[in-house]
Design goal:
There is one protein chain. By secondary structure, the protein is mainly beta. The chain has a single domain, classed as Immunoglobulin-like. The strands form two sheets. It has a four-stranded antiparallel sheet with strand order 1-2-7-6, with no helix packed on it. Strand 6 and strand 7 form a beta hairpin.
């Protein structure tokens, strides 16, 4: 599960931390730089053979969302361009939302070739299959053989 903690290039908060807040597991969740206007919410669930990541991207068309893997980091990013206008007899309402949102996640322990994604009703669902563990090599004993008899150097006269 540690591999699915959001990846932060700068994961330190200003000010001093102590105790559990200094623990690397909790640090990225306490880092509010990824929770602001340039971010989005995600849920990560663990299954036996995969992690399931759901990212909330409401109102963003699928063609404006980019999912990429680079150097063991999964990045989800989207360009937001929406405008809503209403006009009645007594009032006028107009709201625009333009910007870029992005989050990145460490893919350590993930089978990167098996990643799949789908998008429905404003939720990007990403399946991150766990990499099969590589068996540890057991210790073994190496037999020591007999050395070949060394030839004596020839004497020159």
């Amino acid at each position: 599960m540690l591999s699915m903690i959001p990846y932060r290039m700068m994961n330190s908060l200003s000010g001093a931390r102590s105790g559990w807040m200094n623990d690397p597991f909790f640090r990225s969740f306490m880092d509010m730089t990824g929770s602001g206007l340039n971010s989005f919410r995600v849920d990560v669930r663990e299954r036996d053979n995969a992690y399931l990541l759901d990212a909330e991207l409401p109102g963003i068309p699928k063609d404006k969302i980019e999912l990429s893997v680079d150097q063991d980091v999964l990045t989800i990013s989207a360009n937001i361009e929406s405008e809503k206008k209403e006009q009645n007899e007594n009032y006028c309402y107009s709201e625009r939302r333009v910007g870029h949102v992005q989050r990145s996640f460490n893919l350590e322990g993930i089978d990167q070739d098996g990643i799949t994604a789908s998008y429905q009703n404003g939720i990007l669902s990403v399946t991150l299959p766990k990499a099969k563990p590589t068996p540890e090599k057991s210790s073994r004993r190496i037999a020591i053989g007999e050395a070949a008899a060394a030839e004596e150097p020839q004497k020159t006269e």
